[in-house]
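hey can u check if this looks right to u? its 372 residues, i copy pasted from the old doc so theres a chance i mangled smth
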Amino acid sequence: MSGHPVDPAISQRLADLALVGVVGALVLALAARDADITALDYGLLAVSAAVLALHRTAPLVVLAVATVSGAAYALHAHPGPLGALTVFAAVHLASQLGHRGWAAGASAVFLGAYAATGPTAHEAVEKTALLAGWFVCAVVTGLAGRNWQAYLRQTEQRALEAERTREEAALRRAGEERLRIARELHDSLTHSISIVKLQAGVAVHLARKRGEEVPPALLAIQEAGGEAMRELRATLEVLRTDEPTGTPALLVERARAAGLAAELCVTGEECALPAPLDRAVYRIVQESLTNAARHAGPAKVRVELAYGEDVLAVRVEDDGTADPERPPRPGHGLTGMRERVTALGGTLHTGPRVEGGFSVRAELPLGAGESA
């Protein structure tokens, strides 16, 4: 109910204890109906049932102990067919773990001891005939269970392989689509923006050559054309490759060189990050610094990378003009940032700070993206 996955080892141990409890309670309850039952018989039954809890770690030892104690109980107490339940369970479990030969041998040993309790040969055959069928079923069902588990593992492996193949195909298609968009942007926009910038530059040059005052609108067009070309080249570079072109430290240095008061703080023990996680951290810091430069005004920006045991926390905060009472609408940058963090199983919190300014806080599992 808490949403935390249960450790498979704990689940197996609980299942083993449940098996011991059910089998032990059943054989002891059946034995209690016999008026001639002794403390020795109870002890033999308890041992043959309790040892079943170790069948995963020592199946042959469990089989031997259960068979010997079960045979001793049969020779001493002369029980009915249900007295063989603990040995039956040990045979089935050993066969399921691949020890079918030892399971068959243990069955023969117990059946021999059980047959010896018959006063006559005819009665011995009658007593052991039904049990022999049970033990054959125990060996066969153990093999069937082993084959079924192997089939399930193969099916799960094929499903994981198919999922990995689908992810690789999706990444390949995404890369092809990025390249196609880059080509389209280059062919359609670069030429047009270059013409605008060139025409504006020529007009400015001619106006200055004639000694005329250059119209402010013309200067604005020239400047906007140059800025548009720079941003378009940066966009095309991002589309052509999704790999980071630096580190968060380099991003902070570039931001400072551009006039933004930025600082970087790294805490914890730094470690090599998987490529998808490294890209996500880079893009989070890059987008946050870009937003701060555009919207925060003359603000101070602090970038913090905190390496924990299992989580990497990325925090970018500024003391700019963002107002908690008027939170900004998320744009494409914040939306893309959230998609990256969610895809890696992390969490992202963005918004104005109470004391003013804007905050971006992401927590990413350190193992995210290792299989990518």
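Residues 319 and 357 are 4 Å apart (CA to CA).
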